[in-house]
């Protein structure tokens, strides 16, 4: 089963459900134990966070936010990118890291196209920014919630919402400086999608496909 998780032979959720099914089949787990995780506070919280994240996309928040960033940053593209990454980090402190990255990828690509920056110089720093922000609060990273719920099950005091915020701010400041000052020199510079489309004369085919 570990091999299935490592090699991703099947989707991870299918492998996980299959593992539970096998344990049930051989009476290693009871039905109560098998479904107990679905009532775990961490699982419910993560699910609620994904719902909130989707709401940000459906309400058109990203388009408004992109215009706001460009207006504030003006022609200073790296200042705009700095504001963008810092905002992602702060928001990531209150929603799941993975959800934060998924939400802001379209906005990152939009900013790259506006400023003619290779997406490779922004997308990986975007992931880092979400990770840094996830250290700010209890709900910023799903593993924080899991550990906190386990502590509660063991009759230990769970983490409070902002228990490690001070340490998280240190990671956030140092990480953001790295993203803006250092990482751009190591990230490869690849052609943006629009330039590749022109280079290989794909415009008409893409139009037909749409």
Automatic annotation (TrEMBL):
Primary site of residence: membrane
Topological relation to the membrane, as annotated: Multi-pass membrane protein
InterPro entries: Cit_transptr-like_dom, DASS-Related_Transporters
Gene Ontology annotations for the cellular component aspect, listed alphabetically: plasma membrane
Spans traversing the lipid bilayer: 12-31, 37-57, 78-105, 125-147, 167-187
Pfam families assigned to the protein according to its UniProt record, in alphabetical order: CitMHS
Coiled coil stretches, renumbered: none
Key words of the record: Membrane, Repeat, Transmembrane, Transmembrane helix, Transport
Residue ranges constituting the Citrate transporter-like domain according to the UniProt record: 3-189
Cell location: Membrane
A single BP term in Gene Ontology: transmembrane transport
Stated name of the protein: Citrate transporter-like domain-containing protein
Species this protein is from: marine metagenome
Lineage per the UniProt record: unclassified sequences, metagenomes, ecological metagenomes
